[in-house]
Amino acid sequence: MSRTRTTPARLVKSTDEIRALKEEPGDPLRSVGSLSLVKNLAELRLVDRLRLVVFPQILGATGREPILAGLPDIDLELVDNQVLDSRLVLLEYRPTSRTAVGTASRSQA
Fold first, then answer.
1. How far is CA 31 from the centre of its chain?
2. Which ranges constitute the DSSP H helices of 1-109?
3. CA 84, 85, 87 angle in degrees (round to 5)?
4. Beta-strand (E) ranges in the chain?
């Protein structure tokens, strides 16, 4: 529950609705905690910014699958970073314009 939210959350039923919402003025759309939603939106090229928080912990024995497995290759450009406390780092990226759907430019060694 949010004390600052002035409008109710909206249930979006199609990617066309998401595209229309992205065109409306106001605050950007956000998704917090729904990895499957973010993965679906990234596959449809509807993600403008990707914010990742790095937690300094290795979960070799208990960790699950890689969180972005199954996505197409997407080139990202770092647009912001912030140290949140003595351990956590927030990284904010946006897809670059040179990344085509399902492909990414790769440098040849």
1. 8
2. 15-23, 35-43
3. 105
4. 50-54, 76-83, 89-95
Between the alpha carbon of residue 2 and those of residues 6, 9, 28, 72, 81, the distances in Å are 9, 11, 17, 34, 25
pTM value surpassing 0.70: no
Tokens representing 51 are 């914010």
Give the pLDDT confidence score for residue 99 in this predicted structure: 55
In 3D space, the residue among 4, 82, 99 whose CA is nearest the CA of residue 42 turns out to be 99
CATH topology of domain 15-95: Dihydrofolate Reductase, subunit A (3.40.430)
CA 26 – CA 22 distance, rounded (Å): 9
pLDDT digits (tens, 9 = 90+) for 36-77: 888 888 888 888 888 888 888 878 788 776 777 777 888 999
Per the DSSP assignment, residues forming a β-bridge with 53 are: 90
Write the single-letter amino acid at 9.
A
Residues 73 and 103 sit within 8 Å (Cβ to Cβ) = yes
Q: Which among 71, 70, 77, 69 is positioned nearest to 98, based on CA atoms?
A: 77
